[in-house]
Amino acid sequence: MANRRDLIDRFDISTAQAALDFRLYLERARHTPPTYDPVRKTYLAALDHKPLVPSTLNEAFATVLAESNLPLSVALPQPERRADASVVSRLYQAMRNRWAIHIQYTSMTSGADAGQWIVPTHFVSDGEKVHVRAFSFKHEAYRTYLPIRVSTGSSFETRAPSEQFPDDTDWNTRARIWLRPKTGLTPEQAAVVRTEYGFEGELLCVETRKALEFFLDRRWGLDQEDARLERVRTEYDDDLEKTGGRSVTIG
Predict the structure, then answer these.
(1) Residue 175: its pLDDT value, please?
(2) Which of 113, 228, 120, 196 is nearest to 165 (CA)?
(3) pLDDT tier at 248 (50, 70, 90 boundaries)?
(4) What positions does the domain DNA-binding transcriptional repressor CapW C-terminal dimerisation occupy (predicted)?
(5) Of 71, 74, 179, 246, which one has the greatest count of Cβ atoms within 10 A?
(6) For position 249, what pLDDT does the model report?
(7) Which long-range contacts does 105-113 make (Cβ < 8 Å, 24+ apart)?
(8) Integer Cα distance of 229 and 178 in angstroms
């Protein structure tokens, strides 16, 4: 339920503006209009109410969280990943100019290195961390790096790469991943999973770049023993950005 006072308090607008906004909303909400309750002097949403602008559950939750004076919901704290601004700036400049840049990097598997040349090509977010996609001359392959793990003591020397490095085929390849509820779930559990993940048919298709499949598996929990979803098949459009794509299915 809502009335003009709610708009005034929430958005810090005038009474006249709130009246105008409410009138405009009522004109547009003709399919499921709210009803006015003269006793409580407020509008009540219809049972079949549909918003003018649909939102995801996360967006709706963010709206609820914005009501700081209503302690009805809570979100777990997120780690503050504060990469040094100068490091990000140097990587970005190298990326824009297609330069190779010399960095010192600490890996969680091999530890700190003595330095390596990379050519940054893209920034990537997995929803939690920001990565840098880059070609590594040390490993002779494309890899993803976390800017926060690049040492501020790196030389950051730059040069036009004299060595030839290959096209990033995995980046230029689109992956269509077809999912279904995990085998072994009861029909009721499978139905809930379909609702939870927004299935519109028998299978759910998720698209990403082949280079980012690892992050998708981790983000969606597909690599976990208690995963609720499983892959049915993966289709690849090879060299998508250059040729328009050739579909290949991996069972």
Answers:
(1) 95
(2) 120
(3) very low
(4) 176-230
(5) 179
(6) 42
(7) 105/145, 105/149, 105/150, 105/151, 106/149, 106/151, 107/149, 112/151, 113/138
(8) 10
